[in-house]
Specification:
This protein has 469 residues and is α+β, with helices and mostly antiparallel strands. Among the domains are: 156 residues, D-Amino Acid Oxidase, Chain A, domain 2 (2-Layer Sandwich), CATH 3.30.9; 93 residues, Arc Repressor Mutant, subunit A (Orthogonal Bundle). It has 12 helices and 22 strands. Strands 1, 2, 9, 10, 11, 12, 19 and 20 form an 8-stranded mixed sheet that branches. The radius of gyration is 22 Å and the shape is globular. The mean pLDDT is 97.
């Protein structure tokens, strides 16, 4: 009987695991995929939202603003990249200014600071490539950008450092209530826990409905994206939104934390919880709508496209709490945008709930900080030379597009919750994320993985479970 089992190793589940790892608890994170950050958390905009869009008084609004405030501190503590680049919401006609005013009013009620409506001329001083049809903008200086992979992995690694067990490639098939606690039947055996935290993304409704008569329903909402080369990364400096609709904040144009330009997402409700393939129609919609925000986008510099699924609950609100008929089972469901921004606050919010279920005794030896992979190309020449002298593997470039060394790849494999697949290497180091999209570095990366994991080359996977290959 464990104290806590967390279902799902996305950013919410890992943020909760890290926060609970402060205490003398037996904690396990159960994830059906072969790595953390394999679901919604791996395919999103990487935007740290200011908090102006959520309905005042809602849980989304509260956790969005708290998470935004916490993000800078957490990025330093856990060593993941974050930048407060600011956001803009555009409108195209005078009659739409009232929409910006409504967002401004909501943001003020939510506690967002320093927002202001700018005229077209004022906005152009900050963003000269705004589309010719832009009439006015709402400027939100507190908006930011983050690397969603590195953030998710940072939380997971620090949780693992502090004793949390991660049971990867373990799929929960059913859950039953016991007199005290819950029994989880998985494809790897049976597990029991006093408290279960359901952070299963688009599958959170499935697990909730196994233990509660108060049913919820989550719709997978597919979002297609286009990613442009770093040569286009400085085309805008802010994250540029359009006026939001009932399906979200619309198509955005934004720099990424690593210097690319990102367009998207679409918002297409589907039934299949695994359907992450892009569509021609979705990509065409991105191209058609993004030019309403920013003119002359160099779309010929698109290097890849991808799609992710957001977990949209029918009420459009985060569901975080215990069902009345399943005490000890904590839902963290419906975590769509601004879920990434809210994750640091979600960890604290759920910790307080767990404290109401069991006694939390702080560890004396809790490791507060985590150091990420050394980024060779970010070092000075003197630091690079010194590092190579100590470890010659940093003198061998594997990924030419991103300048990633053999030393970085080996670190990604050897560290806590180390990479076991090509995508695991990619998300930890960016090897394969550049202009050639892994065309040149894949063979060498496979060789390094095979050697470190004592596998044959034929057994190295791009992603996915071993038994699914």
């Amino acid at each position: 009987m464990r104290d806590v089992i967390i279902i799902g190793a996305g950013v919410s589940g890992c943020a909760i695991a890290r926060e609970l790892s402060r205490y003398e608890l037996d904690i396990c994170v159960v994830e059906k995929e072969s790595d953390v950050c394999e679901g919604t958390s791996k395919a999103n905009s990487g935007i740290v939202h200011g908090g102006f869009d959520a309905k005042p008084g809602s849980l989304k609004a509260k956790l969005n603003v708290q998470g935004n405030i916490l993000m800078e501190e957490m990025s330093k503590t856990l060593d993941f990249p974050f930048k407060r680049n600011g956001s803009m919401v555009i409108c195209e006609r005078p009659e739409e200014v009232s929409g910006l005013e409504k967002l401004l009013e909501q943001g003020v009620k939510n506690g967002v600071q320093e927002m202001k409506i700018l005229t077209r001329e004022q906005a152009l001083e900050l963003e000269p490539n705004l589309a010719d049809g832009v009439y006015a903008v709402l400027h939100i200086p507190s908006g930011g950008i983050v690397c969603p992979f590195e953030m998710n992995i940072a939380y997971a690694e620090n949780a693992a450092q502090n004793g949390v067990e991660f049971c990867l490639e373990t799929e929960v098939q059913s859950i039953e209530k016991m007199e005290k606690g819950f029994r989880l039947h998985t494809d790897q055996g049976t597990m029991e826990a006093t408290c279960v935290i359901n952070a299963a993304g688009v599958y959170a409704d499935v697990f909730h409905n196994m233990v509660s008569e108060q049913k919820i329903h989550i719709t997978p909402r597919r979002g297609d994206y286009c990613l442009l080369d770093k040569t286009a990364g400085s085309y805008v400096s802010h994250t540029i939104f359009q006026l939001p609709t009932e399906k979200g904040k619309g198509i955005l144009v934004s720099p990424t934390i690593h210097g690319n330009l990102l367009l998207g997402p679409t918002a297409i409700d589907i039934e299949d919880k695994e359907a992450t393939a892009t569509t021609a129609a979705g990509l065409a919609e991105i191209m058609e709508k993004s030019v309403r925000s920013v003119k002359n986008i160099p779309t010929r510099q698109v290097i890849t496209s991808f799609a992710g699924l957001r977990a949209h609950e029918d009420q459009g609100e985060f569901i975080i709490g215990e069902p009345e008929d399943a005490r000890g089972f904590i839902d963290v469901a419906g975590i769509e945008s601004p879920g990434l921004t809210s994750a640091p606050a979600v960890g604290l919010y759920v910790r307080d709930m767990v404290a109401g279920i069991m006694e939390l005794k702080e560890k004396k030896e809790f490791v507060e900080t985590r150091k990420g992979i050394t980024r060779f190309k970010e070092l000075s020449m003197e630091e690079q030379n010194e590092l190579i002298r100590k470890n010659p593997s940093y003198g061998r470039i594997v990924c030419r597009c991103e300048g990633i060394t053999e030393g970085e790849i080996l670190d990604a494999v050897r560290r806590p919750l180390g990479a076991r697949t090509l995508d695991g290497i990619k998300r930890r180091t960016r090897a394969g994320m550049g202009r050639c999209q892994a065309g040149f570095c894949t063979p060498k990366t496979m060789e390094l993985l095979a050697k470190e994991l004592h596998l044959e080359l034929k057994d190295i996977r791009k992603n996915g479970r071993r038994d699914a290959q």
